[in-house]
Amino acid sequence: MPSSRPQWSKRSLTAQALGHVDPVTKAVVMPIHVATTYIRDADNGYSSGFVYGRPDNATIREAEAVLAMLEEAEAGALLFSSGMAAATAVFQALSPGDHVVASKVMYWALRHWLLTEATRWGLRIDFVETDDLDTLKTAVVPGQTKLVWVETPSNPLWTITDIAGAAQIAHAAGARLAVDSTTASPYHTRPLTLGADIVMHAATKVLNGHSDVVAGVLAGARADDFWAQIVTNRKGQGAILGPFEAFLLIRGLRTLHLRQAAQAKSAMALAQRLAAHPRIARVLYPGLPQHPGHDVAARQMENGFGYMLSVQVSEGEAAAIRTAAGVRLWKRATSLGGVESLIEHRASIEGPGTPCPPDLLRLSTGIEDVEDLFRDLDEALGAS
Ligand code: PLP
Questions:
Q1: Residue 289, preceding bond cis, omega within 30 degrees?
Q2: What is the pLDDT of residue 2?
Q3: Would you state the pLDDT for residue 355?
Q4: Pocket test for ligand 1, best of 105, 107, 159 (most atoms within 8 A of CB)
Q5: At residue 299, what are phi and psi to the nearest 5 degrees?
Q6: Is the CB of 338 inside a 6 Å radius of any atom of ligand 1?
Q7: pLDDT reported for residue 383
Q8: Fewer beta carbons below 10 Å: N end or C end of the chain?
Q9: Is 202 touching ligand 1 by the criterion CB < 6 Å?
Q10: CATH code linked to domain 10-253
Q11: What share of the chain is helix, strand, coil (3-state, %, to 5)?
Q12: Which residues of the chain have pLDDT under 50?
């Protein structure tokens, strides 16, 4: 199958996991390769390209090929053992003393790692509101800033950063732009086509989509020295995914387009109905025209605005926690992107220093009947 300009749409290619067929059995599902080592050739070489299981695994490469196709990544994609392993590999490719500008609103555990571990590594990090390009421009230091890291839509307020604008600012300062695109997924946004250098996903979320794999992925715009350093880091630090998880990820990816279409449609319907709910003070969803990032989101997201939204409960934190405790169909759990809808009082998990308001509930919309999802929330809000 041609790789640079595929004949078929991303949806068709993803549904068939690129259409690869096992050459031995002709099976339409590729086998799971579990070997940790490979036989050398008679001339002492490894013409298969597979030497040892830590860097080399055919099932992982299958999944990476699908992800690289989805992200239009010329350098390809690299799978990691978690989203955090993928994200931290980017920062560990920097040198001590390098300056980083990162989104103030981002996945809380990564912000915590940057504040604690990355600074021990010698990185200098400023957290700013990257949804305001003037603020971002002021924060980058030409010649010193080596990386701009943005998350969009950003967890859990769903602020939107203009990727093309951020790329221009980063590049003008001599920095790279990396985008945590976990909640957009390639179904809604392809950051590399907008000028980003690296895109990262917690594949644990909607890419796998079934809450049964922890995985991360990076995709690169070009195979330059920085990308080579990331490849070296993954190999050396061994932050690889297991083959069974890679197989499950391929299986999940096959239905990405169907799941995401249904999830985005339901999320929009819920956002609109909850915006008119007497017990909801505010709905945060980039699909609503009143959301501050709506215009940028409408430009850089396609096929809708994603499956994540948050609501602020009118009667405050205690009522929000009671609502999360009162649902019956929504599952009260952390994480996002699965086929089952999840609800979470986010400030409880993020702790001190979070930009998340205490009355906020984060909603990850699954594929259930949207009428059931609304009724369950409505009843829980009423009871609270
Ligand atoms: N980025 C975002 C936006 C996330 O929501 C998460 C996890 O929730 C991560 C990164 C980290 O991914 P993982 O849990 O697979 O390490």
A1: no
A2: 46
A3: 87
A4: 107
A5: -80, -45
A6: no
A7: 74
A8: N
A9: yes
A10: 3.40.640.10
A11: 40, 15, 45
A12: 1-2
